[in-house]
Amino acid sequence: MSAHRQPWFNAVGLARHCVLIGTSAIMVLPFVWMVSLSLKPPHEIFSSAWRLWPSTFYAVENYRAALSAVPLVRYLANGVFVCTAIFVLQILINLPCAYALAKLRFRARDTLFAAVLVGLLIPPQVLAIPLFVLFYAVGIVDTYAALILPWTISVFGIFLMRQFFRTIPDELIHAARLDGLSEFAIVWRVMLPVARPALVAFGIFSVVAHWNDLFWPLIVVQSEQIATPPLGALHFANDEAGSNYGPLMAGTVLITLPLILVFLAAQRRFVDGITMTGMK
Amino acid sequence: MAETALLPARWPALPAQFPARPYRVAASESRHAVALVAPAVGLMLVLLFGPTAAALVISCTDWEFGAAAVRFVGLANFRALAADPVFWKALGNTLTYVVVVVPACVAGGLVLALLIESRQRFRAFYRTAHFLPVMSTLVAMAVVWQTLLHPTIGLLNQVLHVIGLDGRNWLREEGTALFALALIGIWQNLGYATVLFMAGLKSIPRDLYHAADIDGADSALDRLRTVTLPLLGPVTMFVLVMMAVRAFQLFETVHVLTKGGPNKASEVLLHLIYVESFEFLRTGRGAALTVIYLAIVVGITMLQTRLVERRVHYA
């Protein structure tokens, strides 16, 4: 870089920081505000002078109130269970299909792939009424099965894995066949390990989508025992409606925290995963 | 791609005659394939295509969930919707929301991505900060926004008060409720658009900048105009569609914060589908709304495919 450009460059760099610090602050503000309120006693929340840190530290009271008002731990455990079950079943069902679409020759392969592409166009909310009616008829409304089953088939997962398997050389599969592996064994012992980057990306996409989903759980879940975190947040917001903001914010912190911590711990993978799945 | 580097190099290249396999192998390959795709195909029919077809059929009935008798009524549900001001209000509000949120996220995301990618320093920090809302549980954060926009204790009104302006009850007034939701929508989706643009920027080959330099495009603005922006065309198209589809899926904040009110000022398509189908149990009518929603989302996605194909052809 030539020397005469230097001051101009610094000015641009400074402007960049000014803008980005400003926008970052706006992005992070609700999180800071949430934590701040969760530490404050009522009279400080309602005081007209806003302060970041409370003068009376009230966190213990707020968090205890939040934990005793609703079964927050239960919601979080439900979220972990439902998301894990969904992801494991998605792999078991969609990975073999993706492998067959990418690497095997069979009749109707092109038709099946076309069906997958059409399936990608259908937003999940479209399925709500018929699936609710179906689950009601089968008698599984308000069960974990109702929360998990609709997502076991993922045309998006099939598509993503199929595209990934296409980049894997056929020689790998031929060699595995020469070693006497069955097609089934090839899927689980050769393709699964190779597909790890794509699986991680899809896993992050899947967990984020289903951990945060409200629409479908709202429709099929009534009992508190199987409520997922977003439903829990909703129950809690309704129960604590009015002015009990300290415990409400404490509960909100506890519900948002797990996913945010996981994200901060593996942010590079998260951003790559969401970008990769987004870019299709 | 990094993934190909992970593949073992030791697999021997097979003799050329090997791929021409006898018919017997092909037949067994076909059998194996059927076994591998069968579970997925079965579930696809029961949980995806079957229900979609069922939604189309139900939309032509007068079914109310729990009612004993169901009649086929043709397009009566759609005619009833066309005559219903609430439907038009919801559709109009949805479009207003889309028209506010999508351009803000696309333009804002592009600018932020260019700024973040223009220098090394704090790049990871800025990316994380902007991406945080995308990850967060929107239902819970909606509750936080409720307190931020609260008429008395809310930070927004407190700030406005300090600079001598009158605050409002943002989520409870007809004139502002939808825009308050749009503000939250922009907050949530801006980081998503940003990281998608950042990925797009990374995929632009460095050589092109050198070439542009040699051609005399040596100022940052010239490089932006001649290389960066034209090459971001397809990504921009993609982000636009992605943001539009996400904006049409607006539901959480409406359900938590406004319930479509006041006086339907923030009623939107997906929330109306939920209310009609699962609160009023007007299943047929809800299905008709669902079909309209499906048509809009499919329309947007097809439009993208069409435009991207055209771009690829003359590029």
Basic shape of chain B: globular
Contiguous runs where pLDDT drops below 50 for at least 5 residues of chain A: none
Biggest pleated-sheet summary of chain A: none
Number of domains of chain B: 1
Output the CATH topology of chain B: MetI-like fold
| Oligomeric grouping of the chains | heterodimer
From the 3D coordinates, which CATH architecture of chain B would you assign?
Orthogonal Bundle
How large is the count of helical segments of chain B?
A: 14
Proportion of β residues of chain A? under 5%
Major sheet details of chain B: none
Percentage of residues assigned to helices of chain B: over 70%
- Fourth CATH level, the homologous superfamily of chain B: MetI-like
Strand content of chain B: under 5%
Distance between the termini of chain A: 38 Å
Radius of gyration of chain B: 26 Å
How many helix segments of chain A?
Answer: 15
Shape summary of chain A: globular
Structural class of chain B: mainly alpha
Tell me the Rg of chain A in angstroms: 24 Å
Spell out the key features of this protein:
heterodimer, A: 280 residues, mainly alpha, MetI-like fold, 2 domains, 15 helices, globular, B: 315 residues, 14 helices, disordered N terminus
Give your account of this protein's structure.
The complex is a heterodimer of chains A (280) and B (315). By secondary structure, chain A is mainly α. Chain A has helices at 6-38, 42-45, 59-69, 72-103, 109-120, 128-138, 144-148, 155-166, 170-178, 183-194, 196-212, 215-220, 229-239, 245-265, 267-279. Chain B is mostly helical and 315 residues long. Classes of the chains: A mainly alpha (280), B mainly alpha (315). At the A-B interface, helix 1, helix 4, helix 5, helix 6 and helix 8 of A face helix 1, helix 2, helix 4, helix 5 and helix 6 of B.
